[in-house]
Design a protein that fits this description.
By secondary structure, this protein is of the alpha/beta class. It is built from 11 helices and 12 strands. A 6-stranded parallel beta sheet has the order 3-2-1-4-5-6. The C terminus is likely disordered.
Length: about 350
């Protein structure tokens, strides 16, 4: 084991032991449509349960894993992931650990048979104290995988090389290669993971083959892209891969002189949106939560990145477009107000 053991993390592990069962199975539930950070940290928690507590962990998730890099992660995954719809209904409630999310957040489907016992997350949002539930939410971490790595370190558990590769990739993607909401803890975890990981697996994840549909979405996103001053945005009419919305927002933010970028897209009965910001004090998560509200959908995120959705299941096709246009208008109005004085003169005309 490398690095100094954090006494606070050791105490956290002791507290975790108090809420876990003496034997049996524990569910591990990441957010819907799990990303690399959710997948990697879930696997780390499963390893922790097996090695430290002799408990059987089962990763259960909702949605799909469709992004090419994420599918490549699953190709190297040594633990089973069970879609929620394949879980048997009924029976006794099973203890559950929520990873990279929390049971009260709108981005996770809570199975009726799950009994929350612990939460490991790093996203902004007010924690809700619950009896018998260990809450470990710290936005100071750039990735939940960093926190999970610290737990394995404190427990004296050496992870396999495949998991080290996935966790290293998760930390870099979650922090955008350490350019957004990254901390010294994230850098330390990544550095030590890099020395342990299977570099071939890491390279295969980074260079996963892209499906042809990806290029169709990319062409549509570029065709529909607009700019106004230092804001860039676009829309995708019908998507089957929600991750493409976030990926497109990331791409737009790389445009020169752009400070804000967002992308929207319709998928099934939801209007999905992702926002990105160049500066680290623009509170994307708070902004999106205020625009969407709990009654319409859900949103969350960090200072520089956030995502959410609006339920449009009861709207007609015309009403859906009107709702998207209204969201776009409100968002542009809010972004204009948040731009610095030096950027605001550029808003008088399009790019």
């Amino acid at each position: 084991m490398n690095g100094t053991i954090d006494n606070a993390t050791v105490q956290l592990l002791d507290e975790l032991a108090k809420v876990l069962p003496a034997r049996g199975q524990v569910l591990i539930i990441p957010h819907d449509y799990p990303d690399p950070d959710a997948l990697a940290s879930s696997a780390a928690i499963q390893l922790l349960l097996a090695k430290r507590h002799r408990l059987r962990g089962k990763i259960v998730f909702s949605g799909i894993v469709s992004r090419a890099e994420n599918q490549e992660i699953l190709r190297h995954f040594k633990y089973a992931l069970l879609p929620l719809q394949q879980c048997p209904a009924g029976g006794q409630k099973c203890p559950a650990i929520f990873v990279d999310t929390a049971p009260w957040r709108g981005n996770v489907t809570v199975p009726p048979f799950a009994r929350p016992v612990a939460v490991f997350d790093h996203h902004h949002g007010r924690p809700r104290a619950q009896d018998g539930v260990l809450i470990d939410i710290n936005p100071d971490y750039g990735a939940t995988s960093t926190r999970a790595w610290e737990c394995l370190q404190a427990a004296g558990i050496q992870m396999p090389k495949w998991l080290a590769a996935i966790m290293a990739y998760a930390i870099t993607t979650e922090t955008f290669d350490f350019t957004r909401h990254a901390t010294e803890r994230d850098i330390k975890a990544y550095t030590l993971l890099l020395g342990r990981c299977n570099m071939k697996i890491l390279g295969q994840i980074k260079n996963a083959p892209l499906p042809r549909a990806y290029y169709s979405y990319l062409a549509e996103a570029v065709t529909n892209a607009q700019t106004y001053g230092r804001v860039a945005w676009t829309h995708l009419a019908a998507i089957t891969q929600p991750e493409i919305v976030a990926e497109t927002a990331d791409l737009l933010l790389r445009m020169e002189r752009i400070m804000w970028a967002f992308c929207t897209g319709f998928t099934e009965d939801r209007l999905v949106i992702s926002i990105r910001a160049e500066a680290n004090n623009l509170h994307c998560g708070k902004l999106l939560r205020a625009l969407i509200g709990r009654q319409e959908g859900s949103a969350g995120g960090h200072e520089q990145a956030a995502a959410g959705y609006i339920d449009v299941s009861k709207l007609t096709a015309t009403e859906r477009v009107q709702r998207r246009d209204a969201l776009e208008a409100k968002l542009l109005e809010k972004l204009e107000g948040r731009l610095s004085d030096t950027a605001r003169p550029l808003l008088s005309s399009g790019a």
